[in-house]
TrEMBL record:
It holds the Pfam family MULE. InterPro entries: FAR1_DNA_bnd_dom (IPR004330), MULE_transposase_dom (IPR018289), Znf_PMZ (IPR006564), Znf_SWIM (IPR007527). Residues 690-701 have a biased composition (Basic residues). Residues 675-703 are annotated as: Disordered. This is SWIM-type domain-containing protein. It comes from Penstemon smallii. Residues 518-565 form the SWIM-type domain. Keywords: Membrane, Metal-binding, Transmembrane, Transmembrane helix, Zinc, Zinc-finger. GO terms for molecular function: zinc ion binding. The chain crosses the membrane at residues 723-740.
Length: 756
């Protein structure tokens, strides 16, 4: 978000311009006047940077009993001495003593808005900075707003602040021509991240959504709070997603396998398939838990946002989700993800799934049955052959056969999707940016970047499809029509079916009064398909029901058409618009005709980019010789002075600035403050920093070494005890040998008692 009317950025930009366009012959004298505190500071700062020292603000004096400022002072940054108030604290990094008690300063007297220099001391008791070091002076270091925009673009693209600064320095002719250091760049990026989570992550998220509504009238969001006003569930989609939902919302993939790490909320994107066979995001939700009530809420929110229910929805195997779909989308075909079922089979029935014969029969139940009778027969054979009639998991799977076996859902359009892996591919994208401290606002930013990349890819494919048509190898009328009708990807699928039609043989044919019946069989295969064709109204159907499920003719239908008629065009009733180049034709939104968004986004950075293109063209012409360079300098000085006079004439306190952008923290705050979701830490998860593999290996090695050291110490200590005992008995035995021969029995008893 931009802060074009922000005074801090305005002062930094003026400081930058002053540093770059400073007048080298300028000097300070008593009696010079300026008209604001910013001008006073910049006047002295410009002089200081020329001389080689840095400045800071000092004292303010007011008219007695009022808040009216009467005097303002600025001093050298080395004025005074540092008071070390941290003597008793543990200092991680020792700072240098830069204060030398320098007396250089300047004072301004303020009277009726006029700032006049009344005191000026230019005597320094320290060395001044060399010319090659002056760009490092603290008061001359700042990041202009335009440069901040460049850094933001680099960071959003995954490029670090150090590389971003190196690029900027190279573009500006070296590090001496930029007014900030690598540390300044890192600090700016860090402060930008901190600003994203203030005042609270949830409240900032809601404010961001409200700001999006001012830019996109079709932007939709809804949220759910608990009794303590904490965010529990929320859903959002923009205007373009609404358009995509109108065109491609017949098939939706909904997956909940991804969770954020900070609040452990479930990320649930709604993914569709566009006319280029690409993923398209229709919306996204965050759920606190995976209960039936949460799923009912999010499906109702999706229904409200899109205005219609999908024909088919793909999910993983979750009973709570199934209950919610049955209630909110009663007429929608609910399909389960095949990939999850095969994965669970390897876990639930490993003794069966590990056998290749069982895998073939099990896969045939999914993909090899054209009719319900064939499925029932295949399943029965599988159960009887491997004696699995009492297996609970297979019993449960069989009870859900209508949700995973395509044989029972051929009459519903499914775009030939078999699993939720399309949605999982989106989650893989989100996993790349996931970290333990990822906030909701940061995730929404990444989501918006992902949608922009997807839409850019779609735009490129639209351009490619509209610029021409795929090459048709066989000059057949129906192929030429399909090439001009469908997108490149869909035509490739159509053309593949046309080529496969040549391998289909008509093994049986009979007809009644209105209908022709054809039985087709592919060479080398036992499976047969029946095609019914009514010539009077050109109605044609196939037992494989690919057109009903996919929206494209199958190879069996194309084989019959080649035999019966020379069809130059695809009949209108068999053209599914969602696969054509004109899928979005007649549906406009601000993405294509943007009067509202353009006005809202015409910010300072946008205008700056336009001016920079003009300025670069002028500078390129001016660099021809010295005369044109001098002409450019004079023109720029005149332009700078003219703009400065115009800005000075404006009332700085005027809040109706044309550059101002609606700030969500101020004007879009809710009456009820939304609090962050409760942090539900999953088992085994901590909020500590994730250790790298090398650190884990090093710690493991250290633990082993410590263990060996402790064992060695125990062994040494035990050996020393043994040596002490052995030495004691050795000395005792030696004493006995000496004293026994020379003592009588009484003295021996006394000495024996003395030894112990």
């Amino acid at each position: 978000m931009e802060h074009d009317g922000d005074k801090v950025n305005q002062r930094q930009d003026e400081k930058y311009c002053s540093f770059v366009h400073r007048n080298e012959s300028e000097c300070l004298k008593l009696g010079m006047i300026v008209y604001s505190e910013n001008e006073a500071y910049e006047l002295y700062n410009r002089y200081a940077l020329e001389k080689g020292f840095s400045i800071r603000k000092h004292q303010k004096r007011y008219v007695h009993g009022t808040n009216q400022l009467r005097e303002r002072s600025f001093v050298c940054s080395k004025q005074g001495f540092r008071y070390d108030y941290r003597e008793l604290e543990i200092i991680k990094r020792e700072q240098l003593d830069t204060r030398t008690g320098c007396m250089a300063c300047i004072s301004f007297k303020i009277d009726k808005g006029v700032w006049e220099i009344v005191r000026f001391n230019d005597d320094h008791n320290h060395d001044l900075a060399l010319p090659e070091h002056r760009h490092l002076l603290r008061s001359g270091r700042s990041i202009p707003t335009a440069i901040k925009g460049v850094i933001d673009s680099f960071v959003n693209a995954g490029i670090g602040p150090t590389k971003a600064r190196s690029y900027i320095a190279k573009e500006m002719g070296g590090v001496t021509n930029i007014t900030f250091t690598s540390r300044d760049c890192h600090n700016y990026v860090q402060s930008r991240r901190l600003n994203l989570i203030e005042p609270t992550d949830a409240q900032m998220l809601i404010n961001h959504f409200k700001l999006k509504q001012t830019q996109d009238p079709m932007f939709f969001y809804t949220m759910q709070l608990d009794n303590e006003n904490r965010l529990t569930n929320f859903f959002w989609r923009d205007g373009i997603s609404k358009l995509d939902g109108d065109c491609f919302g017949d098939v939706v993939i909904f997956d909940t396998t991804f969770r954020t790490n900070k609040y452990n909320m479930v990320c649930a994107p709604f993914v569709g398939i566009n006319h280029h066979w690409q993923n398209v995001l229709l919306g996204c939700a965050f759920l606190l838990d995976e209960t039936t009530s949460s799923f009912i809420w999010v499906f109702e929110a999706f229904l409200e946002a899109m205005g219609k229910a999908p024909e088919t929805i793909f999910t993983d195997q979750d009973q709570a989700m199934a209950n919610a779909i049955q209630k909110v989308f009663p007429n929608t075909c609910h399909r389960l993800c095949d990939w999850h079922i095969f994965k669970n089979a390897a876990l639930k029935i490993p003794h069966l799934y590990g056998k290749s014969d069982f895998q073939k029969k099990f896969s045939k139940c999914f993909y090899g049955c054209d009719t319900e009778e064939e499925f029932e027969l295949t399943w029965k054979e599988m159960i009887e052959k491997w004696n699995a009639s009492e297996n609970k998991w297979l019993k449960t799977l069989y009870s859900l056969k209508k949700k995973w076996c395509p044989t029972f859902s051929h009459d519903f359009f499914s775009a030939n999707v078999k699993s939720t892996q399309r949605s999982e591919s989106m989650n893989n994208v989100f996993h790349r940016v996931s970290r333990k401290t990822l906030t909701l606002t940061e995730f929404v930013d990444h989501y918006e970047e992902t949608t922009e990349k997807q839409r850019e890819t779609e735009t490129n494919e639209d351009f490619r499809s509209n610029q021409g048509k795929p090459h048709v190898r066989v000059p057949v009328g129906i192929l030429n029509h399909a090439a001009s009708l469908y997108t490149c990807k869909i035509f490739g699928m159509f053309n593949k079916e046309f080529e496969n039609a040549a391998a289909e043989n008509i093994v049986e044919h009979f007809s009644d009064v209105t209908t022709h019946f054809y039985t087709l069989q592919k060479e080398g295969y036992r499976r047969k398909h029946i095609v019914q064709f009514k010539p009077f109204d050109f109605t044609i159907t196939c037992s494989c029901k690919k057109f009903e499920a996919m929206g494209l003719w199958c190879c069996h239908i194309m084989r019959i058409l080649n035999v019966n008629t020379n069809t130059p065009r695809i009949p209108q009733q068999y053209i599914v618009r969602r696969w054509t180049k004109s899928a979005k034709e007649g549906m406009t939104i601000d993405r294509y005709n943007e009067p509202i968004q353009t006005k809202a986004k015409e910010s300072k950075t946008t205008r700056l980019n336009k001016l920079m293109r003009k300025a670069f063209y002028a500078m390129n012409l001016a660099a021809f010789d010295e005369k044109t360079v001098q002409m450019s300098k004079e023109s720029m000085e005149h332009l700078i002075q003219k703009i400065t006079d115009y800005k000075r004439s404006l009332d700085v306190s005027d809040t109706t600035n044309s550059d101002s952008v609606v700030q969500p923290n101020d004007t879009l705050s809710d009456k009820i403050k939304v609090l962050n979701p409760p942090s539900l830490r999953p088992k085994g998860e901590t909020n500590a920093r994730i250790k790298s593999r090398n650190e884990k290996r090093k710690r493991k090695t250290t633990n082993v070494a410590i263990s060996h050291k402790l064992q060695s110490n125990e062994i040494i200590e035990g050996n020393l005890n043994c040596i002490h005992i052995f030495t004691f008995f050795l000395c005792f035995y030696y004493n006995l040998l000496i004293i026994l021969p020379t003592m009588n029995r009484t003295n021996w008893a006394i000495n024996w008692h003395g030894v112990f």
